[in-house]
Amino acid sequence: MQPNLNPMNPQPRKNKRRYLSVKKKFWASHLFAFSWMALSIYITLPWLSDLSHILSFPVAFIIIAGIAYIPGYMNAFLVASLSLDRQQPFVDEFPRDSITLLIAAHNEESSIKETLSYVKEQDYNGRINVILINNCSTDQTVKRALEAKEEFGLNLAILHEDKPGKFHALNRGLKEVTTDYLITLDADTLLHPSAIRYLVARMKSSPSDVCAVAGSVLVKNSRDNLWTKIQEWDYFLGIASIKRLQGLYQGTLVAQGAYSLYKTESIQKVNGWPDAIGEDIVLTWRLLEKGWKVYFEPLAVAFTEAPNTLKHFIRQRSRWARGMIEGLAQIKPWQQPQIYTKYLTGMNFVMPYLDLTYTLGWIPGLILALFGYYWIVGAMTLFVLPLTFLSFGLLYLFQTKFVFKPLKLKVRKNLTGFLLFILFYQMIMSPVSVYGYIQELFKFKRRWK
């Protein structure tokens, strides 16, 4: 998606439909999801019977549940929830609160000046204090930042943190924050001109127990190669749909470090960012554990640099998988005080099982199907596709109508990337996630990037 430097002021969306409480949406979506899963089990009984003769009933059920029943339930829950989701209008679209922007940087000389130029273009009416924390850089990151300070007239302070690790850098910056709100921004992430305004506006329009708002992060380098073209759809449809689902139930599970807003006091009460490879995941879960809520604002758009090689993609996504395991190890779902966050964090217990089943069951089954053996992958596996296309279709319509159109962004023509995303992306994602689980199990060395 192409970054746009034109600040916008779209009219608040009118909610013409009858309002349903979050609780009613939650249970109505579950009713639909369980009904769909029951129907899929009934239809696939012959498939289960045939596979049981080959592998035994328990093994056959474990495989089919992992590649069809549970994914079907999750997709159905997602579709129903997205259908019922209605974003509340802003109370004030032009807040003036002073905020602090924390940017942790390690060898970012190629991107930091451009990132700061987009900060300069913000249409936010309040004061923006920028704190750049240089974390063991060996290049010209600091020099480029000082050039940007001078050229753009930014309120920029530069700190130095000698302990390697993003959490060390962010905690160093936290000590200098004097504003009620802070925003974390990756050093290679570009902000839409209205991004900060919408992020703060969502926080100011939310109940007092909301402690963080995650922004919407999209891919800025989708034209690099075929690999980034595929990831463009993951951010635009996959990640965004999960964020909307979690935001609806007041428990966005990752206020991502790339671009999110937090109440400074809340971060201080949980002692800052934790010593974790997924520091933003564990931090968010600690905030939720305190009984606070985390929202998501789709209009607060930022553009990040997606990995443009398979090697860097594996490194990034395995790190995300490790972060999820860290979160589950430190904060158990049953420790969450709200039913929605119990459910949302609890679903992460299922993810390793699904990834293992997909890696060790579906992929070998697909290979067998190519040779005419439809024991695992066959006509019945196509039963999950309608909901997949429906969920992505709903989100595509939402993104284009309520996000891209008001912000005057355009969805690039990327049919090849879309088809590869739908058909093959999970074949890479699941094995990479399994690799991340193994890394965390055996405590492999951490990497920031």
TrEMBL record:
Pfam families: Glyco_tranf_2_3. SUPFAM superfamilies: Nucleotide-diphospho-sugar transferases (SSF53448). The keyword Transmembrane applies. The chain crosses the membrane at residues 26-48, 54-80, 356-376, 382-398, 418-438. Keywords: Glycosyltransferase, Membrane, Transferase, Transmembrane, Transmembrane helix. GO terms for molecular function: glycosyltransferase activity. InterPro entries: Nucleotide-diphossugar_trans. Belongs to the glycosyltransferase 2 family. PANTHER family: POLY-BETA-1,6-N-ACETYL-D-GLUCOSAMINE SYNTHASE. This is Glycosyl transferase. It comes from Domibacillus epiphyticus.
